[in-house]
Every structure is written in C-alpha cells, then in structure tokens.
Amino acid sequence: MRRILPALIFLITAAVAQAQTTPFDMSGERPKGEPPATPQIFTPQPATPQTEAPKAVAPLVIAPQMTAPQAIVPPAATPQVVAPHMTTPAVPAQVTPQAAPVVKQAAPATPAFRRYVVPFAKFRLEGENDRRSWSIYLTPEQAVAPAKFNFAYQNAVVVAPEASQLTVLLNDRVVHQQQIGSPDSVSDVSFDIPRGLLQPGANLLTFEATQRHRTDCDIQSTYELWSDVDPEKTYLSFTGREAEKLSTTDAIRAIGVDGAGKTQYNIVVPALAQPGTTKPLLRLAQGLSLLSGMPNETFSFGTDGVPAAGPGKMTVVVGTPAELQPVFAAPSSAQSGALATFATDPRSGQQLLLISGPSWQAISAAIDMVVSPTDRDPGTRRDLLVTQRWTAPDAPLIYSGTSLSFEQLGVKTTEFSGRRFHTSFNVAIPSDFYANAYGEATILLDAAYAKDVRPGSHIDVYVNGSIATTKPITASGGGIFRQLPIRITMRHFKPGLNTLTLEAMLMTDEDTVCAPAATSSTTPRFALFDTSQFRMPDFARVAQRPNLAAFAGTGYPYNRDTEPTTLFIDRADADTLSASATLLGQMAIVAGHPVAVEPTTSPNTISGRNAIFIGSISQLPSTILSQMNIAATSQVAWRPPTPGQAGTQDASVTIADWRSRISGGLLQGQFDRFQQWMHRNFDISLSSLRFMPSSEQVFTPSNANTFLIAQEANSTNDATWTVITAPSAADLRAGVEAMTSQLDWPQISGRITVYSGKTGKIDTVPVSRFDLVMSQPWSLTNYRLIAANWLSSNILSYAFLLVIGSLLLGVSTASILSKIGRRE
C-alpha cells in the first residue's frame, strides 16, 4: 500500500501538469468573448514517444515566468493538449522570434539572356546634335521573347539637362526619351521593349542626342558637349531560355558582340596540323565573317578543349568523329555524310557549331553548305558596300557620274536651333578609282537659315575627317538655298568607304550677348532638307600597283581574281593560322565575297600570280623582302624590346647628316618653309614638280614597330604581292587583330604601313612609283580622264608636253601657210 499510494499521486500530478502545457498565446486571434488561456508554470516531463512525426515544426514554447534554459520544452516531444476551458486548440498565427516555420522554396529564377548591341569599344555622342544608327540581327526566338533594353551613360558637366535629350529608337520608333543629366556618375537606364516591335533578322537601332551648353553660347563651347554610352552596360535582355537557342546555321548572323564591341570565333580543330586542313578552314573563316558582318572580328584556332562561352563568342568544332572523340562526341549521322549544325556540349552546356563528316572531303562539303550563301562571282558588279552592322544604311558604290539625294543616303530633313549643326553620310567608290589630282564632286544643297544668322557663318564639308571645302554665308536677313553647289576636291576620296560630314557654323547677335536661358532656345536657326543631292562626276577607272588603300578598301586585287590567290604560309601554327583567318575575314567583308586562296609553302610555285605572304619575318624568303623594298637585314635586326627592357637607338650616322649639320641646316629650313607655302597657297608639292616618279627607297622597320604590311609588284611586273609580317608569330597575331579593327583598318594606305603595339601608332610610307593596270575595256573617255589625272600629278611633264605641243603646232602652221600663202 505504501508503494501504491506514491505511484497514484505521481500519476495524478503528471496528468494535471500535462493538461496545463497549453502554449502561450500571442496571436490575438481568439474568438470574441472567449477568455484567454492562463499561462501555467510547468515542469519538463520525459519525452512521450509519437507514432507519427508532425507535418510541421511546432513553434518553440516558453513559459513567461521561466528564465532558466530547462524551461524549454523540445517541440517534437511536446504533444498539443487542449486546455479544459477551450473548445478548440489555440494555433499561433504569427511566428515568434525563436520560431522558423518551414517554407516551401520556389524554383530559382531563370537568368535573363543578354545580347550586347554596341559594336564599338567606345561610344560617344558629341556636339549639339548627334545621331548613330546600326543594325542588330535577332533570331526568331529572340524576336518573340519578352525583352528589356538596358544602357548606361554619363555626360559632360556643362550639358544643360533642361535643354538636352537622349532618344533611343528601334526600327525608327521611339522607345525611350529622357533628359541628359548624369554628369557625376554613370546612370543605368532600363525599359521594356513593346511586344511585336522586334523582328527576326535585322533591326535598326538608333541613338540620338540633343545637347546644349549650360553657360556658353559660342561655337567653340559646342565641342565641350558629349555623352558617353557604356558598351559593357548596353544590351538587350531576353526572358526565358528560348532566346538562347540557335536552331539553324542562319543564327551565325546573330552572334553579336561582347561588352567591348568585339566578335570572336573559337575554332577547335584536333587535326589542325594535318596537311589539307588549312584551305577549308580559311574558307570557313571568311564565310563566318560575311554571315555575321561584324566590324571587329577575330579568329582563334585550338586543338583540344572547348573554350568557355560568352557574349559575342562562338565555338566551332571541326573534324571527323574519330578526331573529335577527345573533344566532342559527334552524332552518328556524321559517320555517313557531311554535317553542319548547332549542337550542345554536354560538359559545359554551351551551344556550338559542329562541322563534321566521315572525311575531310565531306567536311569541306559541310563548310560549303555554310559558306555558299555568301559566294559571289568576282566579276559581278555590286551596288552596295555592306556596313549596316556598324553604320547604317549601307554605302552605295559609285562607279561613274551619279547623283544621289540625301534621303537615299540616310540623311533626313532636320530643323536645328543650336550653333553647330553636323550630319554625315557614306559613299563607296571602286578599287580602280584614279582621280585624286583633278575633278570635283558637288553637293547641291537645299537648306535655309534664319534672319538672325549673321554673315561670317559658314558651311564646311569634311571627307574622311579632312576638311575639303568651305561655303560662307554672306547675306543677312535669312535665306533659302536651292541646289546651292558646294564643290569638293577629289583628292580626299579613296577606294572603299568614304564618310562625308556637313557642318553649319551659325553665328548670331543673340549668342554674342549670351543672356540667361539663351543656350536653351528652341527657335530654329537652320534647316537641312533631304532633297539635297550628292553628285559624283565621271572619273578615271584604272588600278594602281602598289596601292594598300585599295587593298583595305575593297580587297583589291584579290577581290577580282578569277583564280585562287596564292597564300604563302611557311608554318601553319595556331598563331599564324589565327592571324591569316582574321585577315582574310576582314578582306572578305570589304570584298563582299570569300576570296579563294591556295595555300603553299614554296615560293617557287607562285610565279606570275597574285599572292599574299604571311608569317613572322624570319620565315619569309629574303627574295620576297627585297622585292618589297624591305631591308633583308630586318630578318635579324627587327626585334622589338621585351617588356621591361629599354629600347636601343639605331646607330645610323651618315655623311649626309654631317653635311646638313655643317652647312645645310639654315638653307634646308628655308627650303622646307618655301615648300609648305607653295603647298598651302597653290597646292603644289615637290613630288608634283617632277618629270617622272622617283624610285622607291629601301625601308627598314624600327624596333618600335611590331607589325608591317607592304605591297609591291612581283619580279615580272605582272602581279601584285602583299606581305603581312611581324618579328614573331605572337606579334603577327596581335598586329593583325589590331589593324583589322573598325578604327584602324581604314588607315592602311601607301605601299607600307607599320603599327606599334606598345603605343598604337600607325605610320605609312607613301607610293613614289606605281604602275597603272587597266581594269576596264578600252574607252577614249576613260583614257582622256587617265591622262588628265596623270598630268595633273606631274606638272613639269604637263608643262613640257604643252611646250612641245605648242612648237609642233607652230611648225605645222608655218608649213601649211608656206604652201597656201603668197610668196614674194
């Protein structure tokens, strides 16, 4: 009995304590009129086993009066007990600070797919008005996906935000417009693209800036106005994974650019060292360049491993299934025939272009399937130079006397209320252009200026950055120009792309006073009408050899070869092959079609054919360098200093140097000043005062140079040879990548162009003696124009022929008069 009684007391106490373990209610959601539960002090009990785990973690329950940690009841061991006075259990509606309810986690959001859209390393809108347009190519999946446009910009501190605007247009529709007001830091802007506005294929993107100065009203102050758009933060972002898919080989056109405006193709070829692979790979590189049409394209060759993916990059895997086995598992269909398709790399998950087949003959057929849409007969005349990926619209090619309206050239009717108006347009001329010494192009201007524009204002025309002519405004009280002729000398034009810029410098009395708010006036002062015309006269058509400007402008003479051009590559290593592919890709863009090449390692097989020699200077035959008038000693002496090594100056002291120091310094200086005066006032240079062109001098590259491109006639004077070389294969690759950029490629001219990788400086050696190569059928008109240009370039020869002609005329006249006249 003594043992039973304590046991009964213990059981009764435990039952009462368990009935009073109702959690402390903090919810405040008890039914109205129901008394609150009274918190009780309880003693922890041993855990009661449960047959089923709770579906949710119970909140941690703490009695208000307890401070010791022993007062904490493990939630999994404490069953819910209803208090005697409650009809329903009290369920807390809010989580206490100590409780963490289990929340079902949502699936991670799909990251947006980005397409960078600026094809330049730097993008600046300058002056009081500026406009830049180019096209971006979208796949069908990207065109239908929801898209946002993002860009970041910063402007000069002197830009007045209340009178300055930045406008973004897509396919000629305004999608965003805002004040320009971010002088202290870069501002990020993001907005949605209206559904249905984007289209598969080319989409025209335009940035426009209207900027006014905060305080100054003069023309000089307009050069302080600028807004920089950051290419790394300017992109289209697409929602969903569908926009990333590349379904057909046509998606090559949509490769785009990275944040620095560059496009890179990584070509993985495990059998790169095998003979017979170079020719189809170089054809593939040219086809890829033409399909994308981007301005800053580079090619990189490798043999093992798939490079990392990224914006503006495309990986191309080429080889038979057996060759690709260590890199990529080709599908079984590649065992039976040519295959060119996009595939997904199972290791990295990136999409890549797979070109495969059972043999390299089949691989060549697969490459032809990709490249064939870009093929064109070299003899076929083209009407446009394709430039829309970096400047729209495409430039029309002008072959003879032509008149084009500003509307056709992409210049719209515009009203302008500032002080310096400017606009630009592009035209292209063929490689056999020969009219740099005579003749004039003409702009027939339709424009108007307001009454307050003072005499002394003027309209300037620039060609390729050089001022060509100035037209003064002499009348006050306003005026309208109807087909006002502005003549432009032809000396500034060159084969290929030419950019003409028209600027109107407008001066007013209001700007002289510069009253407050005068800078933000919106009253139009000038209007340009799209009925204005650009008129190019007939010009001589004959090619010149050498002429690196024609090579850079249209790929001449290789763009016109009906037979494959010989390509000399002594060693087809990765660097040399990458440089060759990058160079030929740029040549294909300016030529408008792939240039057929026949690789060779023997200079003896070249004979009388057009040829390109590419490689480090030590790999080139010395006879080729001699033919290029490049010092043969350069093969040993041309070694740019390594990083951290001071460059040594060349010791080249001659007797002529000492003669100049002793007696010729003052006389030479006076003679130079006289030459400059003659050229400035009469446009006569020393080179034009000659009977015949002088011979070319041997050129020795400086150790400051890291890249060289030269052109000359071959030894039999019936073909053109071009040499692309550098001190090493690594310098060659870096130099080609730099010189084929959109900014540097147009600077190639003369007979030799050299580049310094350390300073970025480009120097040219002009042509002294050249040969004329007939490129057109015989025509008396063309021969007359050729003779006019040649004689204009050689004034003494013209004067000599004029004297001889006058003497012959006098002798013949005297002879005739002696026969028919009276004799005494």
Layout of helices and strands:
Layout: H1 4-19, E1 113-116, E2 123-126, E3 129-138, H2 140-144, E4 147-155, E5 165-170, E6 173-179, E7 187-192, E8 201-210, E9 226-229, E10 235-238, E11 263-268, H3 278-292, E12 297-302, E13 313-318, H4 321-324, E14 339-344, E15 351-356, H5 360-371, E16 384-385, E17 395-396, E18 402-405, E19 414-416, E20 420-429, E21 433-434, E22 440-449, E23 458-463, E24 466-472, E25 479-489, E26 496-505, H6 509-513, E27 526-528, E28 533-536, E29 540-541, E30 543-545, H7 548-554, E31 565-568, H8 574-591, E32 597-600, E33 611-616, H9 622-627, H10 634-637, H11 655-682, E34 707-713, E35 720-726, H12 729-739, E36 752-755, E37 762-765, E38 771-773, H13 780-793, H14 795-820
Helix pairs in contact: 3-5, 3-8, 7-8, 8-12
Question: Outline of this structure?
Answer:
The chain has 824 residues and is of the alpha+beta class.
Description:
This protein is of the alpha+beta class and 824 residues long. Strands 32-31-33-35-34-36-37 form a seven-stranded mixed β-sheet. Strands 1, 2, 4, 7, 9 and 10 form a six-stranded antiparallel β-sheet that branches. Strands 18, 19, 22, 25, 27 and 28 form a six-stranded antiparallel β-sheet that branches. Helix 7 packs across helix 8. The relative contact order is 0.08.
